[in-house]
């Protein structure tokens, strides 16, 4: 059985690497592909720009919330990644006929 300390160290390092890589161009493109901030003609803010980050917050229902980190920080990217992960998990549960309805999810997001 592996040493628990080694396992914990591996988890911490993996989380740290993910956090540092959060604000890459690849991350921004991934967020854009999941949310789509542009219109049907392909117009929209430049991916990764402050305007784009504002649009991302709007799409997620987060704009103006006090708990959202500054847009120019790694913390913002981690926060957005966490919100998208939560949305994906909730969508998967709903598709499987489990979990709360979309209105209950919105209420939960507003409280968190």
From TrEMBL:
Keyword Signal set for record: yes
Superkingdom classification of source: Bacteria
Signal peptide location: 1-21
Taxonomic lineage: Bacteria, Pseudomonadati, Pseudomonadota, Betaproteobacteria, Burkholderiales
Region (Disordered): 90-112
Protein name, as recorded: Secreted protein
Record keywords, A-Z: Signal
């Amino acid at each position: 059985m592996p040493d628990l300390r080694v396992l914990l160290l591996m988890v911490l390092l993996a989380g740290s690497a993910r956090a540092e890589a959060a604000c890459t161009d690849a991350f921004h493109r991934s967020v854009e592909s999941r949310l789509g901030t542009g219109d049907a003609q392909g117009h929209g803010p430049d991916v990764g720009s402050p305007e784009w980050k504002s649009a991302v917050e709007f799409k997620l229902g987060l704009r103006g919330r006090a708990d959202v980190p500054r847009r120019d920080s790694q913390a913002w990217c981690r926060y957005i990644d966490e919100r998208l992960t939560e949305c994906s998990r909730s969508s998967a549960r709903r598709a499987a006929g489990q979990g709360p309805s979309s209105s209950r999810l919105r209420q939960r997001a507003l409280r968190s």
